[in-house]
Design brief:
The complex is a heterodimer of chains A (about 120) and B (about 110). With about 120 residues, chain A is mainly β. Chain A has no helices and eleven strands. In chain A, the strands form two sheets. In chain A, strands 2, 4, 5, 6, 9, 10 and 11 form a seven-stranded mixed β-sheet that branches. In chain A, strands 1-3-8-7 form a four-stranded antiparallel β-sheet, with no helix packed on it. The relative contact order of chain A is 0.31. Chain B has about 110 residues and is an all-beta fold. Helix content of chain B is about 0%, strand content about 45%. In chain B, the strands form two sheets. In chain B, strands 1, 3, 4, 7, 8 and 9 form a six-stranded mixed β-sheet that branches. In chain B, a hairpin with a 4-residue loop joins strand 7 and strand 8. The radius of gyration of chain B is 13 Å and the shape is globular. Classes of the chains: A mainly beta (about 120), B mainly beta (about 110). At the A-B interface, strand 5 and strand 10 of A face strand 7 and strand 8 of B.
């Protein structure tokens, strides 16, 4: 059974960089059948797709966040990571990592439990 | 970018049928996926490729997609179905994931 687990600081200072890691078990981030995404949910709000990475390192990001987002992958550790720079209170959210399958019709079949990141001094 | 529109809330009595819609321009030409999110939990995929159910999802959950509207149908609604439901597509033109705003299902 595939499992994803987010980890990282729960509190980040404004203007600094948010860094999270997703560890994948029961499956491999090196598989060419899947993409690996980050998705967030602000308190009381809906889901927002942040971006994805493929095992080869190719990425794509939500245009609204593109200037501040970097997603990377470490296949040796079966992990992928999110960095979001210059954070503000608006970036306070539960951050989920998820596996996507389906090529041009991608959907998210496995999710992490989510981790709450609060931006505050 | 592609926009998906959902009603903020739907209410239904136990045992009845809930219909949750997801609107988008020519959404019938896309593949729509649905997620259930219960309070304090991560989303769970309940329908993919418009109408397929993952293993473990009850047959009471079904989906359809045509024209400008996709629909998630929950038959014989139970109290345990109370949750937020999100539709999602992959916008292949921009290679991005897109979610609807979510619909809160209340079981009366």
């Amino acid at each position: 059974q595939v499992q994803l687990q987010e980890s990282g600081p729960g509190l980040v200072n404004p203007s600094e960089t948010l860094s999270l890691t997703c560890t994948v078990s029961g499956g491999s981030v090196s598989s060419g059948s899947y993409h690996w995404s980050w998705i967030r949910q602000s308190p009381g709000k809906g889901l927002e797709w942040i971006g994805y990475i493929f095992y080869s390192g190719s990425t794509n990001y939500n245009p609204s966040l593109k200037s501040r987002v970097t997603i990377s992958v470490d296949t040796s550790k079966s992990q992928f990571s999110l960095k979001l720079s210059s954070v503000t209170a608006a970036d306070t959210a539960v951050y989920y990592c998820a596996r996507a399958r389906g090529g041009f019709y991608r959907h998210f079949d496995y999710w992490g439990q989510g981790t709450l990141v609060t931006v505050s001094s | 970018s592609y926009v998906l529109t959902q009603p903020p809330s739907v209410s239904v009595a136990p045992g009845k049928t809930a219909l949750i819609t997801c609107g988008g321009n020519n959404i019938g030409t896309k593949s729509v996926h649905w997620y259930q999110q219960k309070a304090g939990q991560a989303p769970v995929l309940v329908i993919y490729y418009d109408s397929d159910r993952p293993s473990g999802i009850p047959e009471r959950f079904s989906g359809s997609n045509s024209g400008n509207t996709a629909t998630l149908t929950i038959s014989r609604v139970e109290a345990g179905d109370e949750a937020d439901y999100y539709c999602q597509v992959w916008d292949s033109s921009s290679d991005q994931g897109v979610f609807g705003g979510g619909t809160k299902l209340t079981v009366l």
